[in-house]
Model the fold of this input.
Amino acid sequence: MNELQIKDFWNSHPCGDEMAGSLESFNRDYLAFFDNYDSFRYGLESHIPRCLDQLDLRGKRVLEIGLGQGADSEQLIRRGAVWTGLDLTPEAVERVRTRMSVKGLPFEDIRQGSALSMPFADSSFDLVYSHGVLHHIPDVRAAQSEIKRVLKPEGELVAMLYAKWSLNYLLSIAVVRRLALVLMVGLGIKGSGKSAIHVDNAKKEGLFSYLRMSNFVHRNTDGPLNPYAKVYDIDLVREDFKSFTVIRSHREFMYAPPLPVAWMPFAKFLGWHLWVHLSPKAKEFS
Done:
């Protein structure tokens, strides 16, 4: 897996388009599109504004890695952040730059570039924020080194990573979706939409190869064509983010499709989103 494959996928599948409605479906009316997207995003993931409220952002230089449609970018700015954005894809950069323009939002910079080699000086930012992005970077250890480089020594990294010890991973992905695919392939059911793509993937790659969790997880986080994703517990966070110390963590978002679990009050135990707050280590040891 390489960064070009990641870039091509996300450039052609902008985050949230399939679920909230594409820009084309709004006849490229950006304001209507952004308002609809934000309503969908925070209706589904209502914990995000609450989590952002807990951050000390006013007057702080904040770098956001991975921009999506710029919903969180706007929230960061409205909470007083001196905001800079970085995204691997030109599509996201164009959309977020347009959001800033149509909504009259102040910002410092928006760049297209890689988290593996960021176009910023050492010790540039007070806080780095990344929601649902770092777990899509195969060489995340190189990325975290770059994040430490651009952070001030007393800075903070706040990241949302997919949670391994979640209902979505342990039950929906590992059991329900794999069993459903076995039945579909075994019974010759072609399916439709995403299920049809999963059936096609299984036939091309071989069913049991496709069902290996090391492979299956990639195709069951952000669609069956998603090239790469990783799930985390705190031990793996410490392993992959060796330049940082975990300050605190918390779980959010009961989500395990196709299971109807949103009503369950167990997000802090079985939530799909693992939020981690990390501080750069003063000195690294090999």
Remarks:
- Residues 167-187 form the longest helix (21 residues).
- The mean pLDDT is 96.
